[in-house]
Design brief:
- The chain is an alpha/beta fold and 379 residues long.
- It folds into two domains: 129 residues, NAD(P)-binding Rossmann-like Domain (Rossmann fold, 3-Layer(aba) Sandwich); 192 residues, Dihydrodipicolinate Reductase, domain 2 (2-Layer Sandwich), CATH 3.30.360.
- The chain contains 15 helices and 16 strands.
- β2, α2 and β3 form a beta-alpha-beta unit.
- α7 packs across α14.
- It is globular.
- The model has no long low-confidence stretch (mean pLDDT 87).
């Protein structure tokens, strides 16, 4: 069997390098690390080749704004992993992948990206390409956790997923474009959760264990959650909630920044950008951990019961990389590879996804169908 070759756009970035190392450890794939800075790509490729046998890593300059560089790079690979902040050039990337006939996966949250990919849906399928979007841990895992829980109930009625992100932002470097992209997504942020499939702006409390306690976090729209009724008709209430950055960002920057961006989209952009990054770097203190928590409840054996599933890692970027690679492991053995455009949370087998995530270094805790009274006492 011939080893596949994957190209990682943003291969030397915060997430790209983690994905590369996991793939080198877990698979026999060849990798091409790419980005605008060829020196950084070459240096990291050399380090990986010294660390792992087979001389499987190379580097190539790719600028997503230049279709010719994309075409030259894509012609030598089987799949492109988009691990960079490049939603501005998503059409270039997707159209070039379709033209060359290679597969695709991304691990970024972007409403604009989804709109572009959906507009290319027929072309993706017609070209025989497999496009997996919204990989990572959120998006990517929330709906997968709900799909995992559903078979444990005779009738799953409520399923809420909360995310707490405690990261040491001081140690991370961001390009100007990455920061700009975060703010752009804040401007398009749809704050809603679904109750009886109507969107309501309501925060929710989650209990994230003794170390972090109860936290009130904000609802956030995810496409993978919106489409769950297609597969779980009994589900009456669901939603995804995010928060836990730090008190300054959660309670001041997020609400005030969103209000300012709605009122003054252009004028507020730079001030909110600076305030966000300053708040993340100044007020984030240990302990550091990123947690994704499912709280599900419904009927089982004529009793109303509940279930908790917790996925966590000390490093939020590592959790994104781990979740993406766990999906790629299923892609590599062809168990999920099929033509068309797919959301990771709906395409990947959720049981295997959680098992592989644990094997790759994340912590997974599952309390199966516990009594609702017991769960409420814990929370």
């Amino acid at each position: 069997m011939i080893s596949q070759t994957f190209l990682i756009l943003g291969g030397y970035g915060n997430i790209g390098r983690l994905i590369a190392e996991l793939l080198l450890k877990q698979t026999d794939t060849n990798l091409v690390l790419s980005g605008r800075n060829i020196e950084k790509a070459e240096m990291l490729a050399a380090n990986f080749n010294q660390k792992y046998p087979g001389n499987r890593v190379s580097a190539q300059r790719v600028d997503a704004a230049e279709k010719l560089t994309l075409k030259n790079a894509f012609e030598r690979v089987d799949l492109v992993i988009v691990a960079s902040s490049s939603s501005e050039y998503m059409r270039n990337i997707a159209e070039t992948a379709i033209e060359i006939g290679i597969d695709y996966i991304d691990c970024q949250y972007s409403i604009a990206k989804l709109q572009i990919l959906n507009s290319l849906k027929k072309k993706i399928e017609g070209a025989g390409c497999c496009f997996i979007t919204d990989a990572g841990f959120h998006p990517g895992l929330p709906a997968a956790l709900i799909r995992y829980a559903a078979p444990y109930f005779d009738s799953l009625e409520k399923a809420y997923v909360g995310s707490m992100i405690k990261i040491n932002w001081k140690n991370l470097s961001f390009s100007d474009y990455t920061v700009w992209e975060i703010i752009e997504e804040l401007k398009k942020f749809k704050s809603c959760n679904c109750q009886h499939w109507q969107c309501k702006n309501r925060s929710k409390q989650f209990y994230f264990g003794w170390e972090f306690g109860k936290q009130t976090i904000l609802p956030m729209f995810l496409e993978e959650i919106r489409t769950l009724p297609q597969t779980i008709p009994s589900l009456k209430e669901t939603g995804f909630f995010i928060g836990g950055f730090n008190w300054f960002v959660d309670y001041l920057v997020m609400p005030l920044g969103l209000a300012a961006l709605n009122l003054w989209p252009q004028k507020a952009l730079k001030p909110v950008e600076k305030l966000l990054m300053w708040g993340l770097k100044t007020f984030s203190h240990p302990p550091y951990r990123t947690i994704l928590l499912l709280e599900a409840s419904g009927w089982k054996n004529e009793q109303y019961k509940a279930m908790r599933v917790e996925v966590s890692h000390p490093d939020g970027y590592a959790l994104t990389a781990i979740s993406t690679v766990a999906c790629l492991l299923q892609y590599l053995d062809s168990s999920i590879r099929k033509d068309g455009l797919w959301l990771q949370a709906h395409l990947a087998d959720p049981s295997r996804l959680l098992k592989d995530i644990q094997n790759l270094g994340a912590t997974v805790k599952i309390s199966e169908a516990i009594e609702l009274a017991e769960q409420m006492a814990i929370a």
